[in-house]
């Protein structure tokens, strides 16, 4: 008797499902090891709700590929009874490339599985140049980074790009970047074609949020918000280690919340009275660089009352915005980046007090508010997290651009 078409379809479907389950479990193991540092085979089986045999097979496969190793430190941490052999990631067994597109600055880094930067490059770019000129510059820098770092290409998993504005991660398209004048730019496909590496793009602040969740203060936490301010203001929301994007990838556009209903200043978006018109760096100085903010803070410390008042006003408005955010999302932690991290010594005490005073009930007392621990590298580390999510950590990754 020959196999009919129907039986064949069922057989193929079963094979496909088994392969999906194996991929899912493999990614879940790697994610757990990233979050926990190390785990025993029995611990992995319990946490993933799979059999001991399945966990052992998964670990054996990862050992063979060199992605994990028996952890030397943890073996002797025996509690009661026989100590379990601990398994841990081998951080430099694979790398990804993170690309942060700022406003006029490109930062590119080779990053390992645990968020460490092995090598990086920074270059200015002309933000008024045609998009194809800038994408060519990005591709050239990536190729230069690969060459300078002497990385084995077979150990390079892919590229993650943090782009500005609205990003369609599924299709790899930078839909709208107002500060650069880009519309519907197929950034992922362009970089994949130029480098022959799978590329995933994400909004740059959402990427920073994922970086904090994977490698920073958000490890082991359910809900995290990353708030970035400089020329504009934006946020990234991460829930259970996945970026929350909303219907049109607009979740987190807090800078354009209207806070002055009538008679407010015109915002870069065309609306009036947006939060951005009260708390972004142009409120304080015409110089939008980190040096520009340092100048204002130095003036305040030297006793300039006007500088002190304007910084205090920004911190207070930021605190109110965060109190509203706490009431809406009730996150465990709010990580601050850009000008708010740079000026944390001035801003943070006022921001924390305002959130305590203005959030509902005691919600403002429980939330942690802290500057990013990655400083100026938050962008590239975040972009690397986007690549790692797509390639090995996220059990339901967005498609991105494949080679
Ligand atoms: Zn606006």
Percent of residues in β-strands: 15-25%
The total beta strand count reads 16
Distance between the ends? 41 Å
Largest sheet: 5 strands, mixed
The 3D shape can be described as globular
The poorly predicted ranges are none
Largest beta sheet: strand ordering: 6-5-4-7-11
Assembly type of the shown chains? single chain
CATH class of the largest domain: Alpha Beta
Which second-level CATH architecture of the largest domain applies? 2-Layer Sandwich
So how many helices? Answer: 13
Compute the CA-based radius of gyration: 23 Å
The CATH superfamily of the largest domain is identified as ATPase, nucleotide binding domain
The H-and-E topology, N to C, reads as HEHHEEEEEHEEEEHEHEEEHHHEHHHEH
- Supply the helix-strand structural class: alpha/beta
Any idea of the CATH topology of the largest domain?
Nucleotidyltransferase, domain 5
DSSP helix fraction: 40-55%
How many structurally independent domains? 3
Q: What bound compounds does this protein have? A: zinc ion
Summarize this structure briefly.
This protein is an alpha/beta fold and 403 residues long. It has 13 helices and 16 strands.
């Amino acid at each position: 008797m020959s196999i009919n078409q129907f039986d064949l379809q069922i057989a193929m479907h079963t094979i496909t499902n088994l392969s999906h389950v194996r991929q899912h479990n493999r990614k879940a193991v790697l994610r757990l090891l990233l979050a926990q540092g190390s785990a025993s085979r029995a611990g992995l089986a319990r946490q993933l709700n799979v059999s001991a045999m399945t966990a052992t097979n998964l670990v054996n496969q990862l050992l063979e590929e060199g992605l994990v190793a028996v952890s030397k430190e943890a073996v002797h941490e025996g509690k009661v009874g026989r100590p379990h052999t601990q398994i841990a990631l081998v951080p430099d067994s694979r790398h990804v490339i993170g690309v942060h597109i700022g406003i006029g600055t490109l930062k590119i880094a080779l990053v390992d599985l645990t968020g460490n930067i092995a090598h990086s490059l920074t270059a200015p770019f002309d933000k008024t140049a045609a998009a194809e000129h800038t994408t060519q510059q990005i591709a050239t820098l990536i190729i230069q980074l690969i060459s300078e770092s002497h990385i084995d290409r077979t150990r390079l998993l892919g590229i993650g790009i943090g782009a500005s504005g609205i990003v369609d991660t599924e299709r790899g398209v930078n839909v709208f970047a107002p500060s650069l004048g880009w519309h519907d730019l197929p950034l992922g496909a362009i970089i994949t074609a130029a480098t022959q590496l799978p590329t995933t793009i994400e909004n740059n602040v959402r990427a920073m949020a994922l970086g904090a969740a994977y490698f920073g203060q958000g490890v082991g936490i359910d809900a995290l918000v990353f708030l970035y301010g400089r020329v504009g203001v934006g946020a990234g929301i991460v829930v259970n280690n996945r970026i929350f994007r909303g219907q049109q990838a607009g979740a987190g556009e807090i800078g354009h919340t209207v806070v002055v209903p009538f008679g407010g200043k015109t915002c870069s978006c065309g609306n009036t009275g947006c939060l951005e018109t009260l708390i972004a760096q142009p409120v304080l100085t015409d110089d939008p660089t980190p040096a520009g903010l340092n100048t204002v803070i130095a003036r305040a410390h030297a006793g300039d009352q006007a500088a002190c008042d304007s910084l205090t006003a920004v911190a207070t408005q930021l605190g109110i915005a965060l109190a509203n955010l706490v009431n809406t999302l009730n996150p465990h932690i709010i990580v601050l980046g850009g000008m708010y991290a740079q000026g944390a010594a001035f801003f943070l005490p006022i921001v924390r007090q305002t959130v305590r005073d203005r959030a509902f009930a005691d919600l403002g007392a429980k939330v942690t508010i802290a500057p990013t621990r990655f400083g100026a590298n938050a962008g590239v580390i975040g972009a690397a997290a986007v690549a790692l999510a797509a390639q090995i950590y996220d059990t339901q990754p967005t498609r991105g651009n494949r080679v």
